[in-house]
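[Automated response] Your request has been received and processed.

Submitted sequence:
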Amino acid sequence: MPTNNAARTRLLAVLGLLVVPWTVLLSGGHVTLIMPWGLVDPVAFYVTLLPEYLSATGSGPPPFLSAWPLGGAIYVLAVGSVTLEVFDRGDPRVTAGLLVLVGVTQLTVAWGFFRRGSYVVVPLGTLVAWTLVWWFYWPDLRGVVAPAR
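Generated structure:
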């Protein structure tokens, strides 16, 4: 039986990352949303799931775009970690670290598109993941970042 109400709130917040575009791409008036689970074209209402995209790329995506599925895998670990917190079995510092890494992977994706020059890129997933870390996990991380003397 779940016992930790604060952890349940954190779990819901972390699960919210499933519906937030991790990277928003604007190019030539066209918008593409990179979600943790696939690509969304909001104008044509078309979805390409991540496994479908990866199989369609043949030899694999460009190197910077490989950070996208890596971020998805790390996100799955973060969901598992925060779920363990609900049952008082997890360590919030682990969840926080995983969310920081999710943000880094999506910043890598955003930077890769930005360097191509024809995109306006918004790394929304990075901003949301790092905001979750700050909002929910900063007290747990404060001791790691700035140990007491």
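Summary generated for your ticket: Helices lie at 5-15, 50-56, 67-86, 92-115, 124-145. The first strand starts at residue 23 and ends at 27.
If you did not submit this request, please reply to this message.
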